[in-house]
Amino acid sequence: MASCLYECLCEAGLERYYPQFTALGLRRPANLSRLTMSDYPRLGVHHMQDRTRLFHLVQLVKTLQDGQGAEEEEEEDGSLPARGTPRRQLDFSTPSGHSTHADSVAPRRRPGQAGVPHSLRCPAKKEQTPLHRVTHSQGYNYGLPLSSARAGGRGPARVAAERIRVCVRKRPLRGGEERRGELDVVDAQDHESVLVHEKKEAVDLSQYTLQHVFYFDDVFGESCTNEDVYRKTAYPLIQHVFNGGKATCFAYGQTGAGKTHTMMGTARSPGLYALAARDLFARLGRPAPARGPLHLCISFFEIYCGQLYDLLDGRKRLFAREDGRHVVQIVGLREERVESVGTLLEVISWGSRERSRGASGVNADSSRSHAVIQIHLKDSTRRLVGRISFIDLAGSERAADTRDPDRQTKMEGAEINQSLLALKECIRALDQEHSHTPFRQSKLTQVLKDSFIGNSKTCMIANISPSHVATEHTLNTLRYAD
Ligand SMILES: Nc1ncnc2c1ncn2[C@@H]1O[C@H](COP(=O)(O)OP(=O)(O)OP(=O)(O)O)[C@@H](O)[C@H]1O
User: Fold this and answer.
1) How far is the CA of 434 from the centre of ligand 1 (A)?
2) Which of 118, 123, 264, 383 is at a distance of 20 to 30 A from 395, taking alpha carbons?
């Protein structure tokens, strides 16, 4: 039964503290409800992010226990009931070689969603190691309820009406990875779920496989093209921009997981920037007498360690200020007018070169900064009509650099950690239609304030690597996006 607590801690990314938990006599997930914050130091949980995770886990256990009634907590055999407890969300089923519990959580599947095929298998599973399945869904969300906005059908009209979409893209194994014998441990076989097979070793040194299941608005497998991804992510945002709205598309994930491939693409397979530009210019060509002629401008800046740098103006330092109408303005940000897809892509390539050139100076590499490309739709008086922003976020693995001995790396990691957490909070507030959006918690969310309020739509694309070597980062990316 001790392994239940272990898997519960794994689920929250806190497994390294397991020995301290057992040393203090905490052996079952239900015991977590007894913890208060004053116990965290005794458990060795000092790091802010881990404290937050533990706090949420304890709240989740308490909430579910409250719902279930105290008597079940006291069950003689210490087992947790099948529904309405942490077991429902954090599946701690006993080793069985097949999952029974995932099938018992059918009510948690999202509307219109097909079940995960039983045939999903990865090479790592041939060894017949015991299998546990951990089911995540968008309702997991640290015990917060499902967004009402997510309920309902999922046709094209529904996609267009959604304020936020969260999607996952898995890239194929690269040639070099295959040659090194790396295994593909990610299944993205239907369009809404991802299955990650994680090899684990129990405290008694026996091997088992944890199957993590996550559900998203869309899941793109390795055979999906940039055009497929574009159709379901940025394309619905283009119409919104022409309707006078603000739209934002984030690319999130570990370095090397495919963010640049998705956003920038290649000559043979153009990415989201080029495909969006193609449709923006096509729309501009259509007459719209009510508005008069419209044109496009582009700006490109980077956020590194809480500072803004203009990538179209020699990395000039920029400052974000709120004006009298509480609109955040980036003072002095250079905007280039663009007349064709070709010139727009040239400007982006120019800014990207500036970003990587800066990487050898101010920041050690470009994955330590967030890059923000904004395409502004303006009328003949240069008044803003609509805007679409593409954010290539810093490599998600950088957030773990807070434990690095080098001071600069540690500071960068802390900043990235803070900004990604703030972004998650803002997206959650947007999703759950909270009246307050905590956008002041980081420079990233501050400058993107208008992406979270008013007439805005957001799309998050979490990029993941299929390799078993990257399993931990892949799970972190999926948990972040979940
Ligand atoms: N969907 C895909 N299909 C084919 N190849 C891909 C795909 N996604 C990524 N790749 C390849 O994987 C490698 C790493 O991808 P990419 O550079 O886009 O990662 P990244 O997340 O942007 O990393 P970084 O943060 O270092 O820029 C590249 O060689 C890219 O061509």
Assistant:
1) 35
2) 123
